[in-house]
Amino acid sequence: MTENSTATVWHEVASPFCGIASDDLTIEVNGNTVKVLENGDAVTRPGFETPITDTQPRINGKEVTLDQAVSHIADLLINSKQPLIAGLGTDLNGARAAMALADKSGATIDSYYSPAAFRNILVLQDTGYMTTTLTEVRNRVDLLVLVGTDIESTFPRFYERMVWNKESMFGQDIESREVIYLGKTPSGDASTSPNGKKAQVIACDNADLPEVVSVLRALVKGKQIQAETVAGVAVSDLSALADKLNAAKYSVVTWSAGQLDIDHAEATIQNVCEMIKEINATTRSNGLPIGGKEGDTTVNAVASWQSGYPMRTTFNRRFPDYDPFLNDSRRILANDESDLLIWVSSFNTAVTPPQSSANTIVLGRSGMQFETEPEVYIPVGVPGIDHEGRTFRSDSVVSVPLRKLRDSGLPSVFEVLSVVEQAL
Amino acid sequence: MLLKLTGGRIFDPAHDVNDVVRDIYIRDGRIVEKPTDGRVDEEIDVSGKVIMAGAIDMHTHIGGGKVNIARTMLPEDHAEAVYERTELLRSGTGHAAPSTLTTGYRYAEMGYTAGFEPAVLPINARQAHMEMHDTPIIDKGGYVMLGSDDFLLRMMAANSDQEAINNYVAWTINHAQAVGLKVVNPGGISAFKFNQRKLDLDEKNDFYGVTPRDILHRLSRAVQEIGVPHPLHVHGCNLGVPGNMQTTLDTIQGAEGVPMHLTHIQFHSYGTEGDFKFSSGAAEIAEAINKHKNITVDVGQILFGQTVTASGDNMRQFAGAPHAHPNKWVCMDIECEAGCGVVPFKYKDQSYVNALQWMIGLETFLMVDDPWRIFLTTDHPNGAPFTSYPHLIKLLMDKSFRNDMLSTLHPEAQKATHLASLDREYSLYEIAIMTRAGAAKLVGLADRGHLGIGAAADITVYTDNSDREKMFEKPDYVFKDGEMVVRQGQVIKITWGTTHVVKPEYDVSIEKPLQQYFDKFHTLKMSNFKISNDEIVDDGRGSLTIQPLHKGGRL
């Protein structure tokens, strides 16, 4: 497709830019210009519409060919004592190539979104959980409880698609659905029902959630609480919420780990999850962890099936070696424990590598700006715009095909990393 | 390039060949006739060796969401089984839920050349295929799961005609890229979403008024009528519940002669007799299987030690969760279509119940007469990891070994079994039926599981050894599509197996109600649900093999 060609319109396009992976977008492509025509929102529009600027790889700021950039990366890797492959904003095949390269080069892998993802993963590895998926929510939820999460700020279409849909499969009166916020107050009106019923808010600081959630869990189990308030929240309000959870037929408790940026977030999520298990002794209730945008769920899934472990795994002893604390890429870089960083960020120009003493290679979305020019920069295509791909939704159950919408000539992360691996 | 395997003892039950010395010729990945000019490029002397087709695991959980939850959940289990990278092999981990690369290597090293994932949720089929794509050497395929999906239950509640259901089943098999159809706790996974905690064969789903018996009837007919060779693959009601043998007997009776495969039958063969109110129903179940020629089973043998149970049956997994070891578990409701439950479990030889489960599995193996209708599985990893197959084969082939093991188990359980009095020892020929010829026939693989002219050259060569465990854990050679991939039990070459599918015909009119259903109720578009052939080929390593339909089915 050239700049002069007429516009092409694509229907039922899936978005990799948020964890819901809405796949009903209509998109117009004219040359390299992309425009979301229908069902766009504040996340997907910039995701699809950010223009291509640079297309040429650079070494120390100087334009080079892709071959030159790739062989320079291979040289750096061969001479590296402890490489780190991080960021990892990529799709299925990009993740596969990153895993193969890490295995061969003895690198450590981590994702930009791990601080949030591990708040859930650590719970999975310690006690587990009961969860549900988006279509179940859309058709069954009668009580939605949001823990410390202003969902519409990061998942703008959540209510439209999952709560205030026109019709449920089981004849439920959609208007009867109840929405209760615990912690954060909603930033907009998306949670208000079609007939104008506003969500209930039991407000508290997110930092107080560990305490508030503990009391809620105790009340759900029928324990007596002596205190009248907890962190400023009336226990009677929590008691009423506990009664509603026990009475609901299919309650859904949701949280976005990215918004639970508090100490003991994983202990709080664990308390929520154990509470849900306890509610299921008599009725149905499920968790709905929401997150996983820009390939985050995908890279954790691929790492798990290829190595047995999610992110934060190192191959420096020639086998997969998992440590969610030691292998945290931010910690490694802050402590100068890596001499070479390969930063992958093919979705988001704002996700740039942290400052560090490591030699830095960036496989980044075109248009990325750097405070410090990396040693190597390769502008790569965006999965679902510049090349085909697949990405997982936040629930790690549903994955969607991503289509090639334009012919920009930008290489994929898979292509670049596969060639690097072969060059080792 | 023509390769000759000279002087081996051939066990090829598909052609009634039982321990006959014969040469095998291989060209372009296939078994061929002896060349007329007698010219051979390479010859391997396998005189005295036991030759079988590559083994086929017809029920093994190797790919898809619940397996990956199990992997992510069990770092401590992986830490005990770590595999270093070599010049040839990728690194990996895992004992109960191994990584995909490790899974492929271990299967090949044991002489297995194909494995079939038995619980592919349509909505999760894309992931199951991604994982199987990353599983080297072996061929693979999946049985797609229906029966608790709201689309089917809505059709049944509305009394749709069988033709419409056939269309839906064929459509799903096509677009999930499956080789068969599975049903798990028929209707029960849906019932659990409506807070029902059990669902017997004739009990109604509260919302739909549909019973498991109705679902089995509709789906088994559909499979037969659209010509899919693999019979409906049934994980029945009441898994693990004492007394469930009656449900299983009723299910066999209720099949009314239509082909049906009852999977992990061991978990469905429990009585309620004795002080522990838990007893073996294996004799009655085996008798029913022997009598009903339309029924096939795999055993789902348990073996002692740590494993993880991963199942679509979240109703039963939730009930079993208090037994989790270590104490962590996951249950999920999935997309108005299915569910899953992952519960780690440790089978203990000094537990009465676990010891009896071990005995029930072996009793079933020994009391079902026809090896063409019973298959060797541990329901990996639910009864035990697949790496325990050589041990299981020894239990079947060696009575004194079996009875020695038996004598170490929970004493009360020993009193509750007649296992010690069962003299049967499986022969090599019968093992070849169960793990090769029979399995290929059951799955519907025309060109695998046998050593006839034109067959794919998936071949395993063993040194005969009276210690059958040693013999089966380390073949001399394994050939995959004619290439030597294993020598002396070690992988020496990496290949990528094909994905077996069937493509039953359907009337495209089914897409009209499906389109409406997806648009109205789903969070995914129908167009994005479908898995293209290109996705199976993927980065170029994958391939699709379309197996023929049965006569009567339309292709």
Report on this structure:
The complex is a heterodimer of chains A (424) and B (555). By secondary structure, chain A is an alpha/beta fold. Chain A contains 13 helices and 22 strands. A 9-stranded mixed β-sheet of chain A has the order 5-4-20-19-18-6-7-16-17, covered by helices on one side. Chain A is globular, with a radius of gyration of 23 Å. The model of chain A has no long low-confidence stretch (mean pLDDT 97). Chain B has one domain (52-499): TIM Barrel. Chain B contains 20 helices and 26 strands. The mean pLDDT of chain B is 97. β8 (128-131) of chain A pairs parallel with β18 (329-334) of chain B.
Please outline the helices and strands:
The complex is a heterodimer of chains A (424) and B (555).
Chain A: E1 8-13, E2 25-30, E3 33-38, H1 44-49, E4 58-59, E5 62-63, H2 66-78, E6 83-89, H3 92-105, E7 108-109, H4 114-126, E8 128-131, H5 134-140, E9 143-147, H6 151-154, H7 158-163, E10 178-183, E11 200-203, H8 209-220, E12 229-230, E13 233-234, H9 235-247, E14 250-255, H10 265-279, E15 284-289, H11 296-307, E16 313-314, E17 321-322, H12 329-334, E18 340-345, E19 359-365, E20 376-380, E21 389-392, E22 399-402, H13 413-423
Parallel strand pairs in A: 6-7, 6-18, 9-10, 9-14, 10-11, 14-15, 18-19, 19-20
Antiparallel strand pairs in A: 1-2, 2-3, 4-5, 4-20, 7-16, 12-13, 16-17, 21-22
Chain B: E1 2-12, E2 17-27, E3 30-32, E4 42-45, E5 50-53, E6 55-57, H1 65-73, H2 75-78, E7 82-83, E8 92-93, H3 100-109, E9 112-120, H4 125-133, E10 139-145, H5 150-157, H6 162-175, E11 180-184, H7 188-193, H8 212-225, E12 232-235, H9 245-254, E13 260-262, E14 270-271, E15 279-280, H10 282-291, E16 295-298, E17 305-311, H11 314-320, E18 329-334, E19 338-347, H12 352-367, E20 374-375, H13 389-397, H14 399-406, H15 411-415, H16 428-443, E21 459-462, H17 468-473, E22 477-480, E23 483-487, E24 490-491, E25 499-501, H18 511-521, H19 526-529, H20 533-537, E26 544-546
Helix pairs in contact in B: 6-8, 9-10, 10-12
